[in-house]
UniProtKB/TrEMBL annotation:
<comment type="similarity">
    <text>Belongs to the short-chain dehydrogenases/reductases (SDR) family.</text>
</comment>
<dbReference type="InterPro" id="IPR036291">
    <property type="entry name" value="NAD(P)-bd_dom_sf"/>
</dbReference>
<keyword id="KW-0560">Oxidoreductase</keyword>
<dbReference type="GO" id="GO:0016491">
    <property type="term" value="F:oxidoreductase activity"/>
</dbReference>
<dbReference type="InterPro" id="IPR051911">
    <property type="entry name" value="SDR_oxidoreductase"/>
</dbReference>
<protein>
    <submittedName>
        <fullName>NAD(P)-binding protein</fullName>
    </submittedName>
</protein>
<dbReference type="InterPro" id="IPR002347">
    <property type="entry name" value="SDR_fam"/>
</dbReference>
<dbReference type="Pfam" id="PF00106">
    <property type="entry name" value="adh_short"/>
</dbReference>
Length: 145
């Protein structure tokens, strides 16, 4: 990364890695577009960082996703723009996302060379989202054998 300011489009900023990544990049001086569902409430804690907050549900129709991405480009321009979209099902979804981001990178390399999609694949880490997972006792842990 050079000395010029980068613009980062980050999904899932309500907590965990997305939130921390956004905070750290803002502290370094980068432009940050922090996104998540119900952004007015769930991303309110990031307003003091100076990040641009956008309501975004990654399961929305493609036209809606394109419109949100365009909002970010309109605000900061397309140069130096990066997208940072991160148990078995969890890992499988991240692997699928990796393929999508790699494919997007190849398309954007000739369509919009200033936009470089990136993905952070941290794996399972103890963040707040882990508190929302229902844990079921196994036969050995419940005493039933």
């Amino acid at each position: 990364m050079g000395l010029h300011k980068q613009t980062r489009f980050i999904t899932g900023c309500s907590s965990g890695f997305g939130e921390q990544f956004g905070r750290q990049l803002r502290a370094l001086g980068d432009n940050v577009v922090a996104t998540g569902r119900n952004a007015d409430t769930k991303l309110a804690h990031l307003k003091d960082t100076g990040a641009t907050i956008l309501d975004l549900d990654v399961t929305a129709p493609q036209a809606d996703l394109n419109a949100k991405f365009q909002q970010a480009i309109d605000r900061y321009g397309g140069s130096g723009f990066y997208e940072e979209p991160g148990a078995a099902a969890y890992c499988a979804s991240k692997f699928a996302l990796e393929g999508a981001v790699e494919s997007l990178a190849k398309e954007l390399a000739w369509l919009a060379p200033g936009i470089k999609p990136l993905i952070i694949e941290a794996g399972i880490f103890s963040t707040e989202v882990m508190n929302n997972i229902n844990h079921f006792p196994t036969a050995s842990s419940s005493g039933d054998r």
